[in-house]
Amino acid sequence: MYAIEFEADIRSGMVKIPAEYAHLKDAHARIVVMVRDEALPMVEQSPLDFSDTEIEAFKGKDAVAIQREMRDEW
Fold this sequence. Notes:
Elements: E1 10-11, E2 14-15, H1 63-72
Antiparallel strand pairs: 1-2
């Protein structure tokens, strides 16, 4: 297996393979698409807000101490 790299525009979900790689016309390939961040649509922040949620299970306990205790069981 070997890798090739080229840049192309995606048009209607299709990428045109450059002529120099025409020998790959009927080949099986693994495709990796890398896109600049500014080309991606902005994702809306989740409307979920858990800041007012109180969980009683660990209230007033030291989370680090609980984790150390769990690790000691291994």
